[in-house]
Amino acid sequence: MDDTKHVPHTLVTRLTSTVPAAIAVVEVDGPMAVSLVQKHWRPNFGSSELKVDQIRYGVFRIDPEGSDHRNVDEPGESIVVHRSGEECVELHCHGGAIAAERIIHALVHHGAARRSSSEWITSRSEDDFQAEATMALLQATTLRTTMILMDQWRGALRAAVRSIEEHLHHQRFVEAKTAIAALEQYSELGLHLLQPWKVVLCGPPNVGKSSLLNRLLGYTRAIVHEQAGTTRDILAESTSIDGWPVALVDSAGIRPTNDQVEHQGIQRAVQAIQGADRVLLLVDPVQGWCREHAEILEQAGEAKTLVVQTKADISDRRASSVPSHLPVTLVSNTQKIGLDLLLERVSRSLVPAPPSQGTPVPFCSRHLQLLDHFSCSTNGGNTRFPLFRRESTKLHRRT
Ligand SMILES: Nc1nc2c(ncn2[C@@H]2O[C@H](COP(=O)(O)OP(=O)(O)OP(=O)(O)O)[C@@H](O)[C@H]2O)c(=O)[nH]1
Ligand SMILES: [Mg+2]
Q: Positive or negative, the Cα torsion across 13, 15, 18, 20?
């Protein structure tokens, strides 16, 4: 029987992402970490002793006892071993899909328990806020969103929440409401630090939706053609506008049709408009505003619609048929006119007042639930929130 089996609290975690990379890092943490690694590891020279802070090279043998005769010639995995603490060893192996998994599987087979990377992060964070910020930072795609999340990692949101708790505890409800409102103004932005804003390009056929998508992306993603009804399906691409993550969505031109395929495409366009955060409603300067524009505007609502008149190289005058109270941005896809102004307006529409450095921003659904809970408490309800009193659960601190 394997004497290292059922040893408590020796945890194995893949520290690096599962996305293939040059190197993957697996951490073994706990009382049996060193002996477990030594059982599998064969150094390329010298003894297999592992001193703290020493870095060694060798091979990780998946089946060290060779009990499985089919695996006798199994080559193992090349690894760099770093004993980072008395009870902590890092194994640096090939970063493809397989190597780290084989190593983890072998260690679990011999008694370690697998721990997810989110559990690892939680165990090393001061509290839930910092753990959530770390996990969000791993997924952030722009510098701007990263900076906001770094502020939360450093404690901006935690401090704001604690201050609201204090107000509620001392029944200072006016101050509590003000502080809650200050956080709530950023809740939509906070949820879109990771989840891209969905910006849908729509309008009748041939107004230049696909051309504008290509221009805003900076490469030719969608088919552009003079024939009306070219785009049939939804086409979404990730990008960023002024540092805000955005999914730009091209859609089929909306018009009455007897063509079954086109009809389905139009239905998808309508669904995309309904689910959009912002709608770019495109108008051709010659065709002008038509019934479809009015219907889309009614569906999307004026607050989240930006009217864009294309083909400014043909006509740079606002079409008189566009309702006069609607602001219009004139662009030319072919001559690249007005695109910077359009991007600026989209950015301002998404985030009218970007948070300054150090501003607390709620950024996940748990934070919004917490704000709801606080709001209820401003009427004199329960003012203690044990969920946010959790102390650090750091496990094995490195020596
Ligand atoms: N002069 C000029 N032509 C443009 C401009 N934008 C698009 N076009 C032309 O208009 C035609 C239609 O362009 P698309 O981008 O395919 O239009 P669409 O709105 O995606 O059309 P559908 O997919 O059919 O709904 C093409 O011949 C484009 O070259 C522009 O800004 N100026
Ligand atoms: Mg198109």
A: negative
Q: Is the CB of 334 under 6 A from ligand 1?
A: yes
Out of 224, 230, 336, give the residue to mutate to test ligand 1, the one with the largest number of ligand atoms within 8 Å of its CB: 224
For residue 374, what are its two tokens? Answer: 């606080």
211 CA from centroid of ligand 1 (Å): 6
Residue 231 CB–ligand 1 contact under 6 Å: yes
Instruction: List, in sequence order, the alpha helices (H) in the chain.
Output: 33-40, 99-109, 117-123, 128-139, 143-153, 156-169, 173-184, 187-191, 209-217, 260-274, 291-300, 339-350, 365-377
DSSP-derived letter for residue 148 is: H
Token representation of residue 1: 């029987």
Q: Which of 97, 16, 106, 98 is nearest to 62 (CA)?
A: 106
Q: Specify the pTM.
A: 0.86
Say which ligand is closest to the CA of 229. Answer: 1
Strand order in the sheet with 197-202: 235-241, 244-250, 197-202, 278-283, 305-309, 328-330
Protein residue whose Cα sits closest to atom 27 of ligand 1: 226
What domains are defined for the chain? 11-123 (3.30.1360.120), 128-185+361-383 (no CATH), 197-350 (3.40.50.300)
**How close is the Cα of 325 to the center of ligand 2, in Å?**
27
Look at residue 378 and give its three-state secondary structure: coil
- For 81, phi and psi rounded to 5 degrees? -105, 130
With 0-12 CB in 10 A as exposed, 13-18 as middle and 19+ as buried, what is 238?
Answer: exposed
Q: Is 363 helix (H, G, I), strand (E, B) or coil?
A: coil
Task: Please write the tens of the pLDDT for every residue from 163-187.
Answer: 999 999 999 999 999 999 999 999 9
Nearest to 306 by CA among 295, 297, 318: 297
CA dist., res. 183 & res. 382, Å (int): 20
Distance 351 CA to ligand 1 centre (A): 29
pLDDT tens digits, one per residue of 79-103: 999 999 999 999 999 999 899 999 9
For the chain, list residues with pLDDT below 70. 1-8, 66-73, 380-399
Q: What is the pLDDT of the chain when averaged over all its residues?
A: 91
Q: What is the tens place of the pLDDT at every residue in 366-383?
A: 999 999 999 998 876 554
Asked if residue 211 has its Cβ within 6 Å of ligand 1, the reply is yes
